[in-house]
Specification:
Blueprint lengths: L4 H40 L2 H11 L3 H33 L16
């Protein structure tokens, strides 16, 4: 099947919109769960209610850790790569850490 450039862009936009909708749904679902648990515990304030809420809430944390690990690792690696690129740029142009790389050079007369 031959894709034209506009078809590829449309498919990529649809995929990114779908991913945003899924993340939005998951965040709203988790926020609702946390707020509901907080309200229940605030209202009852007993050890038994805390035990029941803990028993019904613990299984939410492993999926949240797994789901949040992907973006966290991505942004960590992105910062690491950008720092490495900046270090290579400084070494190539022989600039110090305190010098502004983007500043225009001053011409001598």
């Amino acid at each position: 099947m031959i894709f034209l450039p506009s078809q590829r862009e449309d498919e990529e936009n649809e995929d990114s919109e779908g991913a945003g909708a899924v993340w939005g749904f998951l965040l709203v679902l988790f926020a609702f769960k946390v707020i509901t648990v907080g309200l229940i515990f605030w209202h009852l304030q007993t050890w038994e209610s805390g035990l029941v809420l803990g028993a019904t809430l613990w299984y939410w944390f492993p999926p949240l850790i797994v789901l949040s690990a992907g973006p966290l690792i991505f942004y960590y690696r992105l910062r690491k790569v950008r720092a490495r690129r900046e270090a290579l740029h400084r070494s190539e142009w022989m600039t110090g850490d305190d010098q502004d790389v983007g500043a225009a050079a001053v011409r001598r007369q």
